[in-house]
Amino acid sequence: MVVEANLELRTQVLRAVREFVQRDVLPIADRYDNDDIFPHELVVTMKEMGLFGCIVPEEHGGLGLDFTTYAMIIEEICKGWMSVSGILNSHLIMAYTVAMTGTEEQKRHWLPLMASGEKRGGLCLTEPNAGSDVQAIEMTAVREGEEYVINGTKMFVSNGEHGNTFLLLAKTDRDARPPYKGISAFIAEKGPGLEVSRHLDKLGYRGLDTSELVFQDFRVPAENLVGGEEGQGFYAVMSALELGRINVAARSVGVATAAFEAAVKYAQQRKTFGKPIAQHQAIQIMLADMATKVAAARLLTYDAAAKKDRGERCDLEAGMAKLYASEICQQVAMDAMRIHGGYGYIKEFPLERYYRDAPLMIIGEGTNEIQKLVIARNLLKRYAI
Ligand SMILES: Cc1cc2nc3c(=O)[nH]c(=O)nc-3n(C[C@H](O)[C@H](O)[C@H](O)COP(=O)(O)OP(=O)(O)OC[C@H]3O[C@@H](n4cnc5c(N)ncnc54)[C@H](O)[C@@H]3O)c2cc1C
To answer: Which of the following is catalytic: 75, 212, 327, 365?
Structure first.
């Protein structure tokens, strides 16, 4: 999918997102995060803004934005509250998978519903015994007439509690070798046989619901098999995860920017030994390192998004952006906390929230150890002798 940048639309959308963050997100972020409250009212506004369909093609009811603009939107949201970006991320990976690999009928039916947010949800890939090793999933889908019967458990499902529709990976052939050839993707709407078995209490990324889902003789119409062909699910989702990695890189840039900006302001207000701490060279060196890392992470993120806009695979670039941006996000959050001294450690300042949110980026959308394997695999392909 090649997506042309519409710069006027980008400016308008980003302005609207900044206003949304200032007006609606920032005032509730600390309290909702602390009390683990899901921001239903933000979902209503994001629906009105068209954000659930921001990268869905216009012909299917979306805004048809390019991926670079998408990365910028996520960055802006995460300057306010990172959890809100999770409401969009896996939902849009689901919509993107349908847009890229669904049948024409599936695109016509599902994409307008997903773009409006009427059908809103996420991804069911990870299981209690299979995360990095997606091929090891145990969930099964057995065809019975015009339906598939699904059994198994999914873990860490973002939007699992409040979402209503999920892209689900299950094995339609347990004996396939290699195992990924037996994996199929389905669009599953909540219904009998699907139970939210656990709400997971998290260190950070709070407010956004993360759940364990149990599927017991859960029935999906055969027409919901994505692409209409068994065994294509692994490829479909792996390609869509590029988008997830761009999202996580952009989140990291957003959180790191917020931490840096808090630190650079605080450093000019707080005085020790008769002058603002920003006048001490040790603090200046920290600020210089922080700003340089954030700028580099932003460029890597936009570079990966630009490659996706050109319709090219960007596993390498998205992997590098996700790896670097998430690692520096944690470093910058920690440095911003150091600059705040004791005040960085208490809940009156948002620093501790940035610090709790940062580690998720190292784990989500493929851990950074896995990113390095993806990057190395692509490098060896590119430089094959
Ligand atoms: C808050 C949150 C939200 C999430 N949302 C979703 C979601 O919406 N949908 C979904 O499907 N999943 C979701 N996940 C799951 C997430 O993608 C997985 O946690 C992640 O992929 C890692 O899998 P795992 O937890 O099973 O760790 P494991 O795969 O068990 O890995 C454990 C450790 O071993 C390392 N490791 C594993 N294999 C290798 C290897 N080959 N070489 C070197 N090191 C290796 C890993 O890097 C890690 O350090 C979410 C997770 C969290 C925490």
So the answer is: 365
Q: Closest by alpha carbon to 340, among 286, 379, 297, 292? A: 286
Tell me, using a 6 A CB cutoff, whether residue 330 lines ligand 1. Answer: no
14 burial via Cβ count (<10 Å: 0-12, 13-18, 19+): middle
Q: Which atom of ligand 1 is nearest to the CA of 373?
A: 42
pLDDT tens-digit map of 52-100: 999 999 999 999 999 999 999 999 999 999 999 999 999 999 999 999 9
> What's the fold here for domain 7-120?
Butyryl-Coa Dehydrogenase, subunit A; domain 1 (1.10.540)
365 is catalytic: yes
Probe target for ligand 1 pocket from 363, 373, 374, 377, with the most ligand atoms within 8 Å of CB: 363
User: Please, what CATH class does the domain formed by 235-382 belong to?
Assistant: mainly alpha
- The residue whose C-alpha atom lies closest to atom 48 belonging to ligand 1 is 367
Closest-CA residue to 344 (of 304, 297, 286): 286
Question: What would the pLDDT profile of 174-232 be if each residue is shown by its tens digit?
Answer: 999 999 999 999 999 999 999 999 999 999 999 999 999 999 999 999 999 999 999 99
Domain residue ranges in the chain: 7-120, 122-231, 235-382
- Distance in Å, CA 181 to ligand 1 centroid: 21
Ligand 1 in reach of 363 Cβ (< 6 A): yes
Note the pTM of the prediction, 2 decimals.
Answer: 0.97
**What distance in angstroms lies between residue 128's CA and the mean position of ligand 1's atoms?**
10
Distance 323 CA to ligand 1 centre (A): 14
